[in-house]
Amino acid sequence: MRLELNMIVWRKYVHIFSTLVIFVASLYNLEGQNKTFVGKIQDAKSLEALAFVSVGIKGNTQGTTTDLDGNFTITAPSTGILVISYVGYSTKEVPLKDAGSFLLISLSEDVLSLPEVTIRPKENPAWGIIRKVLANRPQNNPEEYKTYQYTSYNKSSFTVADFRQFKESLKKDKKEKSEKPKQRSPEAIRRDSIISDALLNKMYLWVKESVVEVFHKEPTQDKERIIASKSSLPGDFSMGFAASDFQPFGFYKEVMSLTLASLNFVNPISDGTFNRYDFQIRDTIYQGEDSTFVIFYQPFKGKNFDGLRGVLHINSNGYAMENVIASPADTSLNIQFRVQQQYKFNGKFWFPEILQTELNMPVGNEGSTFELQIRNRTQVKNPRVNEDIPASVFNYATREQEVDAKRLSDEEWKALRLDTLSQREQNSYSMWDSIPELKGPRNLFKALGNTAKAYYTGMLPIGQFEIPLRDVIGLNGYEGYRVGLALRSNFKDWSWLQLRGYVAYGLKDEAWKYGLRTEVLLSQNKDLRMRLSYRRDVNEPGSFNILSDQTPLLGRIVPRNWIRNRMDSIESFRAELFYRPSAHLQLNPYWRRESRQTTYPYSFVQDESVSKGTFQMQEVGFNLRFAPKEWLHKDGITETIYYFTYPVFDFQVAQGRITGVPDPINYTRLILSMEGQNTSKSLGRTVYRIMGGMMLGNVPYPYLFNAPGVRRDAGSPIFSYHVFQTMGLYEFAGDRFAYLFFEHNFGKLLLKINSKYSQPEIALAQNIAWGDLMNPEAHQGLDFKTLDKGFYETGLYLRNLLLIPILKAAKFSAGVGAFYRWGPYSLENERRNFAYQVNFYFTL
After folding, report:
1. I need a surface site. Which of 193, 258, 294, 661 has the fewest CB within 10 A?
2. Sheet holding 63-65, edge to edge
């Protein structure tokens, strides 16, 4: 009985003890239970958000990273400790005990923590990861997907820094140059203060927003449809920006190009990268079943190439890019930038989610500078990969702005924006009109916008008309300076009709020229246009035009045009169609009738009959142009090719009949041209053009092919592309030809001089010409040769030998070069076989 009682008492104590143990354990678990924390990480000095920072839990393998805005979410024990690590910053531990649900964490920069390039006796452990990234490029590179489509919201801002300092330095310079500086009035000081305060603190210089529907179908079908576009800058003629204007859509190409800044860099994710880049694993973040490897990269010391420096986040799921940070390794570049990319896995594919580019560009004079800061952010919505895209989506314009894109209401914009506008961004839309002191800068930027439009389109807008600038002023050796008036219609209500006319006068030949043109748009989707034109003008004999020569870009200057001094007087009628069945293909059937009178002594012999230089011709022909990588931008009637891409193929076939000679002549003309440019990450850039043509028929001299030489008796000191530098202007002609123009620029690979005023680049050139003429005895009065023995010239020149900073943002570069003429057509006077030239460029 006593034993049974003792057992009952014992069980009671055991039960009480077990309950206490469970209770205490519960209290302990309650104190250390998991909790979700939301936070943001920023730079301690600038207070700017830090993207892709590693956020881990001390004593735990799990973690996360911040997004492009520095935000993160993590589940951790409430008594745990977060470990925050970021390349170039001091690692920080953040206790979570007594912490709120939102954490604002500041990191201090630590330059000493930046990894140094190390030489390892064994294989770098990061190489295995990079090898897997290289092997998986085909399935992870979005540009390699069969199709993709998405909607993007793009926001770009342009602003200035240290503007007051720049203004003060300019005043200082003026005082130093003048013993009696002009006293500035209180009103001028007040105005400048208001302008500076507005641009520095209250508004951006320029805010540009756009919403773009993007479609891609392999291999080269692309469409960007701008459905919404908004700009704060007065006089802005540009269309909506897209991420591709600032950085590549993906980080897998051999060469990373920044199109807007015309900069190219060798990608660390490229073949042969282990000979150029050092990789270091800095962290490993575990998220569920996947791991993210944080790898720092930079060029090896002593390697002479344009490289990058930054951080890659590689996800073990397919070994794909998860996050990317890239900046130029050369910190002495005028333009500094930071490219950031954030990818997301949708269950099947990795696809860019947010792309951000920041550029800093110094502007000003020596000793007086400020920074122009550019930031573009693209957010991707609803990406769809490898789904069918209707053929009707694609047309001849790669980027096209819809008619109502600039007319959306504020409510419509609120529905389209994937990001909110800050107060400063909102002010940028209103303050240009609300602050009277900004009237001057407003007019200035409007004028700059018109100048930019004139450069890219060749047109200066005036109300519902435009001035074709190429018809206003010109220069050549026959006419001297050519001045004129020209107009082209730009009717908003009659956009299907375009009228154009010009009248010009040559100051040297003292003759008037004029022309009229009417163009009717028959189909907008396929750019089907009918054009009728009439010209009474002059034309160089032996010349021909292909579609690639008809670019309106003012910046594509051909110096040879300035020295041409042999012309024919012509009267021409022409009827033609233009048609683009796709974005990269243009077709142009035409008919023309022409009367031509030579202005130089020439006779054409046909049997025993002689014609004295007056000819009539009728011709039907067909032009074709194919540019598989070219992007044409369309906004209303304005069509622009912002960036020239290669290769470009041209083809022309024509049949005609020449009268005005004793026996009418029937002929057939064929011309082929291919222009290309290749950039190698290890060898430099190659530019080439291959051309060939033949004329079937015994035609007079004006209808032959004149070889494009540039040498006059006094020489040709200015370098020009796709011409023969040591060949006379009209030294060779024929009824068939083949030309090769080849140039290779080694960039900075051979010379390591990186001075502020000299960064020479060595380039080699080789030009070859061949031609023939079936009946040379038919042409009298002119002294020219054929090219049946082959013409050869070789060139060597230095680019960027002298660099002159222009407003700090750009450089005027000058170089020198020499070409040597050799082979069967070398000249007896050895000195005449050399041509010495100067080349000029503007570079960023």
Report:
1. 193
2. 63-65, 54-57, 81-85, 92-95
